[in-house]
């Protein structure tokens, strides 16, 4: 099947029980099935979803024991006998959607994230916090060879997700978009994709360092929710005519900003929910939603085409993720920083350390 030498054991970070912590240990390397590939993961981004998975705080159970991670960038080292369109040696990415049935009503329309049989990396199947990860060949991301694997890793979830969310918002070039959680992993990417798509960005997050970061990535305005006396008024004031942004991309994992967005969104505007705060519910005044014709919708990762488009923005140098690299062995510390909201941009783990 391949000339590449594949070890029988490898280092991985394993969630042994819901709630954590992760345990750094050696586990066996799996063999790919007929329609799967084995990827030697070099780097993996750490998404807030991985923390939700370890804590088990979403209303969807994870597999256990679990290897998390779904922003894994690496090299294909083996493939099953049915695989034709992924080559050994190719750079490929493990993303959230590890596989889907390709036959249901959603898959038929390239809405594969909605597939009732979807396999989720680092959640229902083992993900990228290991040196060798398996994915369905049909769903791996094809990473252009000129892209550095550490820098591109966060595109595989954060990038794809916010790019899709911006498309779902319907906002057009020249219009204002509020990015809520703009200093975080998804938010940092959203600021840049929005800019590259010709949108004018208002970043919302807490703290001076996050403000500096999102301004440097291209936000025109920054509203610090920790010091603003009236977030709704400040966001509206940041738009040319004071009527509020045409779209709001919700990437924070706290529910208060959802209510604020219903206050500042422009009439006919769209609120796109992306972050999933534990137990959060959406509340919006029905009267206002009707007479101002506001749209509130969810957006969930992206399909295979969104994936390749999001990667192409990266390849062309239009989005650069601010990231810091640490060894895979330090994953628990990254979760700690994430919990304390101290991360600006993304942490990427190097699976060789
Ligand atoms: P992150 O921790 O890197 O970033 C979240 C940011 O939100 C932080 O910078 C934090 O300071 C900020 N924040 C917190 N409270 C805020 C408030 N009141 N107002 C403004 N900003 C606030 O997390 P991430 O990796 O970017 O993930 C964010 C969320 O998106 C998580 O819930 C994750 O599970 C979810 N997610 C959803 C999808 C999807 O397909 N819909 C995909 C990936 C991640
Ligand atoms: Zn993610
Ligand atoms: Zn399906």
TrEMBL record:
Q: Pfam families in the record, alphabetically?
A: ADH_N, ADH_zinc_N
| A cellular component annotation (GO) from this entry | cytoplasm
Q: Which GO terms describe its molecular function?
A: alcohol dehydrogenase (NAD+) activity; zinc ion binding
What does the sequence similarity comment in the record state about its family? Belongs to the zinc-containing alcohol dehydrogenase family.
The name this protein goes by in its record: alcohol dehydrogenase
Signal peptide range = none
Give the Enoyl reductase (ER) domain ranges: 19-349
Q: Does the keyword DNA damage apply?
A: no
For activity, the cofactor(s) needed are: Zn(2+)
Organism of origin = Parathielavia hyrcaniae
Q: Does the keyword Transferase apply?
A: no
Q: Which UniProt keywords apply?
A: Metal-binding, NAD, Oxidoreductase, Zinc
Family annotation (CDD domains): CAD3
Catalytic activity, EC: 1.1.1.1
